[in-house]
Design brief:
There is one protein chain. The protein is an alpha+beta fold. The chain contains 12 helices and 9 strands. It has 2 domains: 92 residues; 227 residues, BirA Bifunctional Protein, domain 2 (2-Layer Sandwich), CATH 3.30.930. The chain has a 7-stranded mixed beta sheet, with helices on both faces. Strands 2-3 form a two-stranded antiparallel sheet. Helix 5 packs across helix 10. The longest helix is centred in the first third of the chain and has 36 residues. The mean pLDDT is 92. Bound molecules: phenylalanine. The site of phenylalanine has 12 residues, from strand 7, strand 8 and strand 9. The site of phenylalanine (PHE) has 12 residues, from strand 7, strand 8 and strand 9.
Length: 343
């Protein structure tokens, strides 16, 4: 058992003891641990204070005062230690030598996706001819996608486009042609639009993907003829592929055009002499086209006696393939940078 002076002396010694212990510490965590060893509930100061009860009551305040003083001192030492390590860290930071002559690490720059590039370039060619971009929803009504385009529910042409149905009346658009309908409903002729966008079909193999991209075109005016259609497509092919390539229009059937045609172009890969891309035929199909059917004009309230129009729809993936020899449509969507970086 200690006497009051002994206890006070022991308390006063704790300050120095803490200093000795904390001095070499170099991180906040160990300083906090030391602090707890001295000031915590079971710390050294508390241990000594247990003896307080055994002292004569008159002497206790003296010991209490000494305890408070040492607590305060230790708190101050903790603060000082923390400032010391913060300063040391700052000094170390400042002393670090940076070689500003080292070359910077190259930053990999991103770029537009191949399909975006091709889409923009194709749109740009049509923009030169006075076409403006129009857009429509990818989740579309059955009416805009089919009915208004003269494809009623039981029409065999619906089988050509295996449809994803959202509900009875709502579909994922199978082509960009509903944008024709939306445009003609809201805008009087003259009309010259191109509508690029995603379309959806239940199809999945090396040349088909359930989602792909089309570029629709529509021109409506008082004197649009089939030769305007052919001239426009021919100009597009030459300009887009930067080569003197021919096109041919094969009679074909789409319910919303009359007459209708399948559009082929000379293979840009071999120039028409035959290769793996065109399967040795020299020609590749790039889309469908035709003169707007009077029935469609009727559905959108345009006078077919006064106006005529042409429409076409082309596959953007197909054009990118022809440009770059991409032989599997999956490459476009997988997001593999080894593929994407090449363009
Ligand atoms: N919408 C047709 C398709 O996707 C293509 C087309 C567009 C045909 C415009 C004629 C006119 O198959």
């Amino acid at each position: 058992m200690s006497t009051t002076p002994e206890l006070i002396a022991k308390l006063e010694k704790l300050g120095d003891e803490f200093l000795a212990q904390a001095q070499p510490l170099a991180d906040e965590q160990s300083i906090r641990a030391a602090q707890a060893q001295f000031l915590g509930k079971k710390g050294k100061v508390s241990e000594l204070m247990k003896e307080l009860g055994k002292l004569p009551p008159a002497e206790r305040p003296q010991v209490g005062a000494a305890a408070n003083k040492v607590k305060e001192k230790i708190e101050q030492l903790v603060e000082a230690c923390l400032v010391r390590i913060a300063n040391a860290a700052k000094q170390q930071d400042l002393a670090r030598k940076v070689d500003i002559t080292l070359p910077a690490r190259p930053v990999g720059g991103g770029h537009l996706h191949l399909l975006t590039q091709v889409r923009q370039e194709a749109v740009a060619v049509f923009a030169e001819l006075g076409f403006v971009v129009a857009e429509g929803p990818q989740i579309e009504t059955d009416w805009h996608t089919f009915e208004a385009l003269a494809i009623p529910k039981d029409h065999p042409a619906r089988d050509m486009q295996d449809t994803f149905y959202v509900s009875e009346e709502i579909v994922l658009r199978t082509h960009t042609s509903p944008v024709q309908v939306r445009t003609m409903l809201t805008q009087p002729p003259p009309i010259r639009i191109v509508a690029p966008g995603h379309v959806y079909r239940r199809d999945d193999d090396p040349t088909h993907s359930p989602m792909f991209t089309q570029l629709e075109g529509l021109a409506v005016d008082t004197d649009i003829s089939f030769s305007d259609l052919k001239g426009t497509l021919l100009h597009f092919v030459k300009r887009f592929f930067q080569k003197d390539l021919g096109i041919r229009l094969r009679p074909s059937y789409f319910p919303f055009v009359e007459p209708g045609a399948e559009v082929d172009m000379q293979c840009s890969f071999c120039g028409g002499s035959g290769c793996r891309i065109c399967k040795q035929t020299g020609w590749v199909e790039i889309g469908g086209a035709g003169m707007v059917d009077p029935d469609v004009f009727k559905n959108v309230g345009i006078d077919s006696e006064r106006f005529t129009g042409f429409a076409f729809g082309m596959g953007i993936e197909r054009m990118a393939m022809l440009r770059h020899g991409v032989n599997d449509i999956k490459f476009y969507y997988e997001g593999d940078v080894r593929f994407l970086e090449q363009f």
